Amino acid sequence: MTGKALQLKNSVLRQPWRLWFTQIRSIVALETRRNLFSWRSWWVYFLAFAPTAIIMLHGLFDRGRGRMDEDTMVMAAIFQFYYLRLGIFFGAVGIFTSLIRGEMVERSLHYYLLAPVRREVLLVGKFLAGTIRAVTLFGSAVLVCFLGMYLPYGSAGQQFIFDGPGKAQLYAYLGITILACLGYGALFLLFSMLMKNPTPAALVLMGFEFISSILPPFIQNFSVSANLRHLLPVAVPAEGIFTLLTVTTEPVPAWLAVLGVLLLTAAVLVISCRRIRTLEISYTTE
Amino acid sequence: MSDHIVFNEVSKFYGEVLGVNRVSLELPPGITSLVGPNGSGKTTLMNLMTGLIQPTRGTLNVMGLNPRDAYEFFRAVGYCTQFDSFPKAITGWEFVYDGLRLHGMSHKQAADLTVEALTRVNLGEAAHRKVAGYSKGMRQKVRLAQAIAHHPSVLVLDEPLNGLDPMARAESLALFHELGKQGMHVVISSHVLEEVDRISDRVVLMTGGYVIAVGNIHQVRQEVREKPMQILVRCARPELLASKIFEMDHCVEAKLHADGAGVFVRTRDVDQFYTVINKIVSEGTVKIEAISPADDDANAIYQYLIGSDGGTA
């Protein structure tokens, strides 16, 4: 091992990792207790569970009249066009922009900044708490949607979920949900620290995500949805403008797509960590 | 390691607005009061001291510690801000306890210190009520409890007596006095000198972002009194008044107003000046229409000072 590498290794080992881990755990516990269920976020719950209600009604009223292969397409379309493009996207706007900017608006961020916690540790703790919240909401909504779609088929539905292709599809949907929450979450957390009103930036990002599939492959690496598109378990035929959401220019292996989102998330978090180091409390300008 | 709080030529600008300018201070342990009118830069100085904002120019350190080293710094420093806001739906107990857990303490350690801090500020009985239902004084107390809960060696208190009833004020002052006697740094801001002068070891007088006097209360009072103050006297015969003013030892300048209907007077002893003016009015030699301070900052500071000992010059 070279001298510089050894120096770096020693420097990494000298850091108080145990303390940071304890502090991150405290921040996650505290944030989760305060924010996991809050009436102020009713619209995020609505975003998450609106399709669930429709699928439940479909299960109740069309019992025995539907076809499972048709419903598989419906589930895929709901996930791809609604959850991935709208629900998780705007849910992440609500959840992750409130982590830092929301506390500045409510004038309570200074309590964290006056605690003996490195600001980077605070940021990571808050990001993890936001991710847990987003994944809990949207993961359970997707799970309930999936079960609500197939369980009305009785034993055939159960066999599809537990012994057939349904299990892999469910895991893929849940995995994509987690990755989408991580990717969008990191971006919106950064936006909220760079600007007072992150909504215009979110709309620009939405436009970018919408057209990302027709952009050059290098630029697609910076799109959460372009990476996640390669992981979708069911291809949905689309017409007109919706083909923009389904077109896959170059097939990418699943591991590479997952790595792409994780690297994007990590890179954005590093920028956020640099930003929070110089963040100043000036509530009067909020 | 130094046990002083040191500001070295520290300036802070919010865009083009001045927060504080070229502040150089060295504060030893004990009770220090930052006194000055609203907008004089007290809160900016405290926010700089605790790293909530960064200086535009200059350097500062608190007992050799830098706020960027958050773990060491905030174990040693407690800051009770004047932001009257709390995380939503939180109880007083949770508010103090949550802060301690962020120190990396175990549940038992944090719970014991929470009880101790809340008892110290007399909030034990209301501990499990929501902070949103507290009175202003109780909210002030619970913020104080959070600032002292981890036994810091530097306690920074921004207007800590606001909203407290007389009994609670007396209790708080006694607590600050006790902490100061234990060798802690206690830095208190107030816009009323009378509130804090009895317990202060030293006073830092601020106005318009500048430190204008530092020392014990007697030194500061003297320092301010020696600064000439400008007063505008509106009268019918300003040249006659100016000639009388030149006879006064404490008046260093008398200048006619541009409209010819008044005199700007600069005096080192405003009390004596008012006494002489009263005499001139009673004699009837000059008809005085109005007297007003032409130097608001100095007047404001003077008002604080005369409030502290009855105004004898």
Short account of what is shown:
The complex is a heterodimer of chains A (286) and B (313). With 286 residues, chain A is mostly helical.
Low-confidence stretches of chain B: 305-313
- Content-based structural category of chain B: alpha/beta
Task: Calculate Rg of chain A over CA atoms.
Answer: 21 Å
Number of E-state strands of chain A? 0
Question: What's the overall average pLDDT of chain B, rounded?
Answer: 85
Please give the order of strands in the largest beta sheet of chain B.
Answer: 5-6-7-3-8-9
How far apart are the first and last residues' alpha carbons of chain A, in Å? 50 Å
Class from secondary-structure proportions of chain A: mainly alpha
Helix content of chain A: over 70%
Identify the overall geometry of chain A: globular
Strand residue percentage of chain B: 25-35%
How would you sum up this structure, described in words?
The complex is a heterodimer of chains A (286) and B (313). With 286 residues, chain A is mainly alpha-helical. Helices cover 74% and strands 0% of the residues of chain A. Chain A is built from 13 helices and no strands. Chain A has helices at residues 3-14, 17-35, 42-61, 68-105, 109-113, 119-150, 155-162, 166-194, 199-211, 217-220, 224-228, 243-246, 254-277. Chain A starts with a helix and ends in a 9-residue tail after the last helix. Chain B has a 6-stranded mixed β-sheet with strand order 5-6-7-3-8-9, sandwiched between helices. In chain B, strand 8 (202-207) and strand 9 form a beta hairpin. Chain B is elongated. The A-B interface holds A 16, 19, 22-23, 26-27, 29-30, 34, 38, 40, 103, 106-108, 110-119, 277-278, 280-283 and B 14, 47, 50-54, 68, 70-75, 77, 79, 81, 83, 85-90, 98-99, 101-104, 146.
